[in-house]
Amino acid sequence: LLQCAWYTHSSRDLIPIFWHDARPHDRGACDVFQLCFGYWKCIATTQFTNLGAAIMNVGKASKLTGLAIRTMHYYEEVGLIAPARRKNGYRDYSENDVHKLGFLQRARSLGFSIEECRTLLTLYNDRNRASADVKRIAAGHLCRVETKLNELVSLRNALSHLIECCDGDQRPDCPILDDLAGLASKSSESTT
User: Fold this and answer.
1) Are 69 and 59 in contact (CB under 8 A)?
2) Which of 34, 51, 68 is the last residue of a domain?
3) What is the spatial distance between Cα 11 and Cα 13, in angstroms, rounded to a whole number?
4) Which terminal CB of the chain, N or C, has fewer other CB atoms within 10 Å?
5) pLDDT digit string (tens) for 116-155?
6) pLDDT tens, 24-59?
7) What pLDDT is attached to residue 185?
8) Which residue range forms the structural domain that includes residue 18?
9) How many helices, marked H, and strands, marked E, lie in the chain?
10) Quick check: is 98 in a domain?
């Protein structure tokens, strides 16, 4: 297998992304990938290795993915990844594990929940998946994001109004505190 990878933004390390079935005499396989994908780089030193064969400790996997070790352990705890364990209990991360961690990092950065990440990871690994299932999850998430955005706009407007109403001088009267204490609504009710 020919391993292809990309450079991370935070370092010059390569993160394995995909593998291509290539034979030892398959001349120019790297050139083909670089021509087709541009930014992909073939890792010559690990050509023709088994998928996931390169093993690394948690520190190296953390450096490659940019994830905190604590986050990686959490992903293991909730069953999103399952790195191999040595007899002494140390974790060994395969290239496949690192790829999953990168997938999870991107999904979490887009705000997907842990359960959505679990479903997306399952769909990613299922070659018989329907893209409609993936789109449904993303659309549901977008709907929740838009709801939160609308709530934040309402919150911003309410805070802006309170700040406008407050003189911000040396007097003790403060419409912001009155509103927080519920006095603003009571005083308007008593005047009606």
Assistant:
1) yes
2) 51
3) 5
4) C
5) 999 999 999 999 999 999 999 999 999 999 999 999 999 9
6) 444 444 444 443 344 444 444 333 344 445 688 999
7) 58
8) 1-51
9) 8, 6
10) no
Inside any domain, residue 145: yes
Residue 115 tokens, joined: 């359960």
pLDDT, mean of residues 1-13: 46
Q: How far is CA 123 from CA 132, 133, 137, 153, in A?
A: 11, 8, 11, 34
Would the pTM of this model clear 0.70, i.e. be above it? no
- Dihedrals phi, psi of 69, to nearest 5 degrees: -60, -40
If you ran DSSP here, which 8-state letter would residue 12 be given?
S
Q: How far apart are CA 144 and CA 5, in angstroms?
A: 34
- Kindly state whether residue 118 falls inside one of the protein's structural domains: no
| Integer-rounded Cα radius of gyration of the chain | 26
Q: Ramachandran region of residue 41, left (φ > 0), alpha (ψ -120 to 50) or beta?
A: beta
Domains identified in the chain, total number: 2
88-123: pLDDT as tens digits = 989 999 989 999 999 999 999 999 999 999 999 999
Say which residue, 24 or 65, is predicted with more confidence: 65
- Residue 116's nearest CA partner among 98, 138, 132 is 138
Q: Cα separations (Å) of 112 from 82, 97, 147? A: 20, 19, 15
